[in-house]
Amino acid sequence: MEQELKGQVIIVTGGASGIGREACLALAGKGADLVVADFNEEGAKAVAEEVRALGVKAEAFKVDVSKAEQVEALVDFAVTTFGTLSGMFNNAGVSKVQSLLEMEPASYLKVIEVDQHSVYYGLHYGARAMVKLGVKGVFVNTASIYGSVAARGSFNYNAAKSAVIAMTRSGALELAEFGIRVAAVAPGFIETPMMGQLDETARAALASQHVTHRLIQPEKVASVVAFLFTDAASAINGSTVAVDDGFLA
Ligand code: NAI
After folding, report:
1. Can you give the pTM of this predicted structure?
2. N or C terminus: which one in the chain shows less Cβ crowding within 10 Å?
């Protein structure tokens, strides 16, 4: 049971920090070999070392997921290094709280490129590699509760994350015939470095929107992500699973 992902090769983007780092630990705990991909190369190397200590193979890869050719190179690296590709956690993302009136095109596009286009690149290049290899696989994408409801100051983030939910559905529809499954998680407010840009009052205001009035720990998202990669989740296809402590309830 513990090693149900043994022999699988999974790419985790944004693997150096927060939800991505915890997902690496959870996936390694189930026996998966990993490519820890992040813009933060040192952070990715540290996580790769951490998961190798759990007994799996892991390599770090520096990538900017908003660049198509770099995501293509990431997929190539995984296949060349491990000989196959079984899955991809498209998780890297950024946010920048800013009103619509203040949001210049560059600021709008930055979040769209990192949070939205990256998921297309991951699905496109990752699935092409799997189809070419003739292997089945699983993609999990990180959406957000803000893909389903609007938040002030999150115009670009709302747009990107609702697109991730839509791409999870259409990706599942298109890739099912190749034995490839696509799902997503929609986290609530998670205690990660991304929260670091907020002061205590703002964090408490977010936490109060959960039914327990606490921020969610990233390992609670990671355990759901790891489950979605397993065969036990084989009927979850095109769905976005909320990990939001009742926010959407
Ligand atoms: P984090 O800031 O701890 O980790 C994000 C990681 O992504 C960092 O290691 C960063 O270096 C990497 N990254 C950023 N831009 C990149 C790029 N262009 N290319 C490659 N790597 C890049 O943040 P956290 O909270 O773990 O976020 C992970 C995902 O979860 C994001 O997609 C975020 O939008 C989503 N999310 C986070 C929530 C939260 O409350 N923290 C809530 C809902 C969704």
Report:
1. 0.98
2. N
